[in-house]
Amino acid sequence: MRGLSPMAQLSEWLSPTKNCLLFSTLQESTFGAVLDMVTDRVSTAALLVLLTHFYKSHYGLFLGLLALDISSHWLQMYSTFLSSKASHKDMGDSKSTLLRLYYQHRFFMGYCAIGAEVAYILLYMLAAEGNIGSPYEVTCRSIGNGTVYGILLAIALPGCAIKQLVNLVQMKTAADVCVNYDYARHNSKAQ
Amino acid sequence: MEDSTIEDSPKQRNWPIYLYIPNIIGYARIIANVAAFGVAFTNKKLFAILYFASFVCDELDGRFARMFNQKSTFGAVLDMVTDRVSTAALLVLLTHFYKSHYGLFLGLLALDISSHWLQMFSTHLSSKASHKDMGDSKSTLLRLYYQHRYFMGYCAIGAEIAYILLYMLAADGNIGSPYEVARHAVAERTVYGIVLVIALPGCAIKQLVNLVQMKTAADVCVRYDTHRYSSKSQ
Known about the structure:
Two copies of one chain form a homodimer. The first copy, chain A, is an all-alpha fold. The first copy, chain A, has one domain (40-190). Chain A is built from nine helices and no strands. Chain A starts with 5 loop residues before the first helix and ends with a helix. The A-B interface holds A 6, 29-31, 34-35, 37-38, 41-42, 45-46, 49, 52-53, 56, 59-60, 63, 66-67, 70-71, 74-75, 77-78, 81-82, 84-85, 175, 178-179, 181-183, 185-186, 189-190 and B 7, 9-10, 16-18, 37-38, 41, 72-74, 77, 80-81, 84-85, 88-89, 92, 95-96, 99, 102, 106, 109-110, 113-114, 117-118, 120-121, 124-125, 127-128, 218, 221-222, 224-225.
């Protein structure tokens, strides 16, 4: 990630499909990458807002997921900027083992990200169809009944859960980057 | 609010940045926000008190950072992120209390996220390219806006206050669209109404500025690419 152009950095986060289109048509642009990122953030946010309405008793869960999505992506973005400014030896390798594993397996990454989106959409569909109760009850019931939604949920939910875990870890490592950035600047001044 | 441009050297070697006083105030602000939104549907007075407490923390952390020489990059980012999340949560609340107009508040949420995200990115790009490459892409409105920090503050605070007042009015039992509720409060000349009259113009200007900033930030992204390719071909 370090030392790469913004385009290359950004494409780390782009969906696999968009990435394919982007590079195959040779119409990559920084604006396009930012547009993609912003649309991701806003559409995920809107979906979670929807879920606070459909599962009002558990609005805190979805509000929390919204907070986590905004915070972790914001921190990641900022720490990427800082990393691209500082030299490699200053920043150190602040990524955790979990993150290293995560980033090495792009299809796994895709599964987790898509899993989260699919899980949210399915929860919406189930609630909109009249299933009442907490999101946990609705999920258990649809998996127990072996419906199409239930089967898809069973596949998507682990990915969703891992994505949230990764978001949490990324917040911590990104915060560390911010802290190390200040220490590195101070050390280089003191020399 | 912290000045994000300069960090102080971590002179106090034994004082980890995570435990800087302004950052601890930042954590307290987050806790106050979490507690506030936890009770938003059940206890509007407590929500107002907690949200006000987080507002106080937001003001204090900048002052303490200057006072104790404890400015940090982490502190500035913490401040930014907390701003974004608490504004988002407040707008989510308003989609619930004004369900018939949830699109308005969802739109404001989308605008808040998009404009700040684009701004942050374009600032990063500008800091990489030289000044003459980027050109002065700011519009006249933005130049005016940024030259008057108190005016900026009024607009930003106006938006937050307008949202909180709309929440309080709805939680008090006022029903109808946000426009009706606002007009009603203003006409009745209640305290809420008077404060709304003061806050709403600032709120409106803030949204306008957000829109303009999105456009100019997008222009920065485009110009960044154009310039890289033209400098390569030279």
